[in-house]
Please model this.
Amino acid sequence: MGDELDVAVVGAGPAGLLAACEAAKHGLEVAVFEEDSIVGRPEKCAGLYSLDGLKKLRIPLHRPWIQNFARGALFKSPSGRSFLVDASRDVAVVANRERFDQYLAEQAVMNGASLYINTRVSGVKIGNDGVELTTRRGVVRARYLIDSEGHSAFIARSIHPSYKLGEWLPIIQYQVAGHGMDRQLVYLFFKHYLPDFFAYLVPVDDELGKVGVAAKKNIRHLASKFMAEEFPNARVVGVQSSAIYVGPPLDNPRVDRVYFVGDVAGHVKATTGGGVIFGGMAGIAAAREISLRDDSFNNYVKNAYRELRRIYLVRRLTARLKPNQLDMLFRLISESGIDRKLSEMGDMDFHGSTATRLITTREFLKLAPLFLKSLITS
Model:
């Protein structure tokens, strides 16, 4: 490490690693500081990423981290009514998150970035010509800082003058054996006792899968209830807990020489809690702006935030529906042909844009009055 870095990156998740790789490709001296001793641990998500999103991030399909491919999703209502969105082609990849993150770390290092594991940043000061980081390795100086620390937001809270994010939900994810479902589909369960978020199954193969349950309170009890109800014969072979973000993005994700990207900035789809694609794009944009001295990050904020706020609005609207209203909606989606339209046009990442396009279709115009009539007469 030289006397002064061009870019210091805090957090070796996808957003930080993609930022480090991009900056290093432009010839900058970059170092990534990760507080955990192994990149990718603990695994914090189901690892379901759209193929289109990975293409936007220029991440090739690298077999060591690929566990499965998915072509669609089955949505199940509180009463058990369901509809299927099936693209009839692979649209997403299921990743081993630990190996995925380690692949990104390898790419960053191969392009010239330095990686320091087991190195927590305990303090940050912003000066006139750079930032100063306090670490267990001593004081580190850099011209710019990209903060991708994640949920903890320790640094963000200490240096961002108005740092505030929305709601985080605790989540438990089980690794299960014997799920008994189609490995090419993802399953979303909307339960009356899980009003805060849906539960899911993401198959790894015909035998193994990842089951997640999120709730504001009593999460262990509710997760056990869900498992007993939907997967009574499955065997739990692993368990982990984390949190997912379901709020809007952070206002002003740049303060002077510091860029906030990924979970710490709410670069997350509020409908699903997925943040790898939007967080990764933010990290790359921050690195480009620093390297090229242009408006890459500013332009990212203008464009991506419009979409992220639309997605947040979709979540707010759907979260207000009661169980019987969800049942009616699921029935009408099937009867009106919306499920087929979603199979044709649905985007796994840009839910807000998909919803905007959907409301102009013939199928939606057929569904809307029926749903309103059902709400009034229920």
